[in-house]
Amino acid sequence: MAEEFDVAFIDRDDRSARFLVRGVTPAFANGVRRAIIADVPTLSIDTVRVIENSSVMFDEQIALRLGLIPLTTPDDYEPGDEVTLAIDVEGPDTAYSGDLVSSDEQVQPADENVPIIDLKEGQRLELEAVARLGRGKDHAKHQGGVAVGYQYLQRIEVGEEKGEFEDDEPQIIRGVVEDDGELVPAEEFDNDLSQRYPGREVTVEDVPDAFVFHVETDGSLSVEELVLGAVESIETRASELQAAVQL
User: Fold this and answer.
1) Residue 89 gets which letter from DSSP?
2) Which of 136, 154, 185 represents a domain boundary (last residue)?
3) pLDDT confidence of residue 1
4) Which terminus of the chain has a lower count of CB atoms within 10 Å, N or C?
5) pLDDT above 90 as % of the chain
């Protein structure tokens, strides 16, 4: 079945991408979305040992903020693997995620400018933290995909010219459209078909078994790693089910 898939990237950057997948069912598309959110493991701070915290914030609040800082996750980490991070900042200063020092250079804060706490004169934050691999289905801090969605690819059919006295009413559309075989993001014509085809009758229809995915990552993994990890998770669970049924 996988050989029948047709995948094409529409746009992408360091943290997000849109891509078209043809030859899949709505159930499979939703399965990929759920797996990206829930099944792909990422590293996140799990336990914290506070050495000194003379800030105005409780230890538990600091620990919560640390747990929500995305960490780059190497592909060779296995469940149970750990990495230690430490921070030591004295005021007057602001402690940022970039101040965290990791025991593994592969594991770093995905963003260096996430504020942890503003320290006044005489205040200090010193602690050690342990990051562990986990999945989004166990805790939201392990969700590498911060915005994951999909929708049908829509096909444009351009008809006859409108009558001489017919006005162009706005025809708003979102996502990506297929126009004469070309994939066109709707924002290129301000999401208004009447601007792309002034004076023409236009109809829009969903393309069966063709879905446009939008995936945005928190930086712990790339979009490609998230999607491939999700598909691998689905494949593993399907194989386990097949083996169980055959027993």
Assistant:
1) E
2) 136
3) 41
4) C
5) 66
The answer to whether residue 240 is domain-embedded is no
Two structure tokens written together for 209 = 């078994």
Alpha-helical runs (H) found in the chain: 26-38, 59-67, 193-196, 223-246
The dihedral sign for the CA sequence 239, 17, 219, 107: positive
Rg (CA), the chain: 24
Supply angle C-alpha 186, 154, 185, rounded to 5. 20
Q: Is 64 within the bounds of a domain?
A: yes
Structure-block tokens of residue 217 = 């990552």
SS3 of the chain: helix, strand, coil, percent, to 5: 25, 40, 30
Are 157 and 210 members of one domain? yes
Q: Which of 213, 209, 186 is nearest to 197 (CA)?
A: 186
The Cα angle at residue 163 between residues 201 and 205, in degrees rounded to 5: 10
Judged against a pLDDT cut of 60, whether residue 242 lies above it is answered with yes
- Domain shared by 130 and 62, yes or no: yes
